[in-house]
Amino acid sequence: MKQLGLFIHLFLLNVTVLFSQADTYPIRLPTDKPNFLISIKNRTFYINEIIDSRSDTNSIGMVRKGIGSKNVFATLEGGLVGGLNNYFTACLISINMNETLTPVALEIKEFEISEWVDMRSNDAGIKMCLVFYKYTGQNQRVPFYTAEIDEIKEGLFDITAYHPVRIQNGFTRAFTKMNDYLRDSTDKPAFYSETVLKIAKSLKSTGLKKAGYPDSLGIEDNIRTCSTRRKGIYLTYDEFLANRPSIIDNYVVEYTSDSTRLKLRSASNKIYLRWEYWGFCDGKDIFYNAQNYQSAIYYSKLTEYGTLLAWHDRYLDASDRAVYRVFGVVGLIVANEIADNDCMIYNTANKKVYKATPSVMLSILKNDSDLQQQYTEQNRQESSHIFDIIKQYNLRHPFK
User: Fold this and answer.
1) Which of 259, 310, 328, 361 could hold 304 in an S-S bridge, CB 3.0 to 4.6 Å?
2) Do residues 270 and 253 make contact, with C-beta atoms less than 8 angstroms apart?
3) Given the DSSP bridges, would you call strands 299-301 and 286-289 parallel, antiparallel or unpaired?
4) How high is the pLDDT of residue 379?
């Protein structure tokens, strides 16, 4: 077993180098194919301008590329604003259009594609938060509609190649809902959220019900100042922040052999609680839903709290999959014995999850030269060192 372990360890080093060639993956939205048109019945608008107000404008998410499914930053060809401008100009068409078009500004507050890959299945999704504006007589923008797109689908083969279709379908749904509201807003909400719809559907299928809280907020309604963390399941990050878990009963906690992990089921029908849930509090510790960054059905215990939430997890990377596909289950067991748990980070500034790689840490620490120097002068991959840096960062940059 030791000889096999050494061989696989060397294999891991080779595949890691092999799959580290590409840094970004450009996604192209075809403007010359009829099946990529965005068709809106009785369209009454055109996109006059696009504003990118995302906190991180360097990429549009992560994809998995290569034999070992390495994490690679995804970009939109031409940039997000330029690429979408070209796409809408060429592909935004109307069915039965007979009205004067209203100029509309589009603000993109969130635009992220993602992929989760385990040993046997592939999942991919897209999240968008879009705010639409009308113009006043002084050419001032006034918001009138918000659309949240949240789609996750399973796939068997090249899930990356399907992202242009996900983008097309997402904008088609958002534009259709906004156009309906623009035509007639009577008795219609100025908000469309697929996240809210998914949560409602999940609660119905699992038999879970949301708890009620008073409208006013007290000192206990803040995870930073509360004396007691309320026990229950958080549907969203905002519920965690407010120490107000929505689900407080009718669920079952399933403990695992690993004390830093647990699973949650519905008490009514034993269904695992997966995509739609942010995390869980047992009254003391807080557990984050691992399915938000990889295909898994467990929740991981947070060990650091602050601007950066941090925890240990065995993140499935390129070399893990390569070992599994070449050596099978035995190889994966050996690989897990060799490797340490990874440090995972939830950055509350942009609500994104990262593996604490050197590039991620240097990016986070770019405005703190002292900590950046401490990080680079020591073993940057040593888990205890990374957590120490995160602890210091949280003390210097308080939780907002």
Assistant:
1) 310
2) no
3) antiparallel
4) 64
